[in-house]
Amino acid sequence: MKEKPLPPTHVYLLRHAQCEKNDCINGFESDVPLSKLGQKQALAIGEIMVKYDAVAVISSGMLRAKQTAEEIAIACQIDHYIEPLLHERKVGRFSGTPVNHEDPVWVETLEKWKAGQTEYAPEGMESFADISRRILPVWDEITTRFAGEKIIVVAHGIVIKVLLLNILAGYNASDWHRLGRIENVGITEIIGTGRNWQAKRISEIPQKIKELGT
User: Fold this and answer.
1) What kind and span of H or E run contains 38?
2) Is 24 inside a domain boundary?
3) CA 51 from centre of chain
4) Residue 1 lies in a domain
5) 3-state secondary structure (DSSP) of residue 172
6) Does the reported pTM lie above 0.70?
7) Which residues, in sequence order, are CB contacts of 36 under 8 Å at separation 6+?
8) Residue 170 sits in a domain of what CATH number?
9) Is residue 73 part of a domain?
10) What are the two backbone dihedrals, phi and then psi, of residue 197, each rounded to the nearest 5 degrees?
11) Residue 28: beta bridge partners?
12) Is the pLDDT of residue 1 over 70?
């Protein structure tokens, strides 16, 4: 008797809640906890995620992602698994410096990535290709392990963006701006298998989160 095929895997991708030193670059080198607002956001997103009937939450091993995922696991009464390789981008000497999207280093890096030079990165920092090589095997393992299920993955802004540009049909590094910003606890909902995924929504912020302020 022929086996019934599994339904598509359904993943809710979330960037962690707001962390302390939110106005600074918090890369892999800066393992900061959630801010007071972030703690409220984590509690709220946990309550929101209950309705999606996920079977597990998987997070980066960094404190801000773990704290967010822990609240989701408690609210949804599901297991929480740690995947250390989902950590934030390594930013080297820029760790802890003020966020400045117009910084020439970041502007040059992003332009090179969009132009297809995905191996480019200043010394001590991860490139688009470095992040891809790190996270795609983890992604394959997670989505194979939970094939046909609904799961929640909590990671970091750039990590989620690089992942989506690799796996969403019709996207690549040149679509960085087209994809838009990945917001704290914004819900990205994707459905698919392997490396072929479709987005139902990208970084959608629930009204309950908006009401908490910034």
Assistant:
1) helix 36-49
2) yes
3) 20
4) no
5) coil
6) yes
7) none
8) 3.40.50.1240
9) yes
10) -130, 150
11) none
12) no
